[in-house]
Design a protein that fits this description.
This protein is mainly beta and 193 residues long. It has 2 domains: 2-47 and 138-190, Sandwich (Immunoglobulin-like); 58-136, Cupredoxins -  blue copper proteins (Immunoglobulin-like, Sandwich). The chain has 1 helix and 17 strands. 27% of the residues are buried. The protein binds copper (II) ion. Copper (II) ion binds at residues 62, 87, 123, 125-126, 129.
């Protein structure tokens, strides 16, 4: 129903207003038949993205927020400590370890990520704390919501490699060919690990 009403809406808007050009990909990521939250969906082979103006991984209640963050290459990510306790944040990125050290509530550190890849964040003091920053080299990406759903809009028509990544290690890739101003709905099944 939702898709029907959206398509109808998009037809009406394209006749009355200037719709943002390009194709759209929506869909759902599933693993063993269940929706997968926080899966990264992106299209490779796209024009170079701009760095994001702002990106933050907060530390609150001994938790990194958000748990998964997607940024474009060149983005500087802030790591404020808004917790009453000290954290010692470190990460693996590009097969190297970097350390932000310990810093107090109300202070911050930042790191610029210049290459695509996965940043696995951990805390030396609290072994339960973990988060991921997924650095993409494309402007076309999305993170699935709690229903496993995603939407990528305003895509320049063309052939891309669609990739899905999940922190469990499950991943998939497939070629997609998108034509101008069309909406595509995909169901993407990850194999459980
Ligand atoms: Cu900690």
């Amino acid at each position: 129903m939702w898709h029907n009403s959206f398509l109808l809406g998009s037809v009406i808007f394209s006749t009355l207003f200037t719709q943002p050009p390009g194709a759209e990909v929506t869909g759902q990521v599933l693993m063993l038949g269940k929706p997968v939250r926080d899966a990264v969906v992106y299209l490779e082979g796209a024009p170079k993205p701009s760095p994001l103006p702002k990106a933050v991984v907060d530390q609150r209640n001994k938790t990194f927020v958000p748990h998964v963050l997607v940024v474009t290459v060149g983005t500087t990510v802030e790591f404020p400590n808004n917790d009453v306790v000290l954290h010692n944040v470190f990460a693996y990125y590009e097969a190297k370890r970097f350390d932000l050290g310990m810093y107090r509530r109300g202070t911050s550190r930042s790191v610029t990520f210049d290459k695509p890849g996965i940043v696995a964040l951990l805390c030396n003091i609290h072994p339960d704390m973990s988060a991921y920053i997924f650095v993409v080299d494309t402007p076309y990406y999305a993170l699935t919501d709690k229903n496993g759903q995603f939407r990528i809009r305003s895509i320049v028509p063309g052939t891309y490699t669609l990739r899905v990544w999940h922190e469990s290690g499950a991943a998939l890739s497939q070629k997609v060919t998108l034509k101008g101003n069309e909406a595509y709905t995909l169901s993407l099944a990850l194999k459980g690990k």
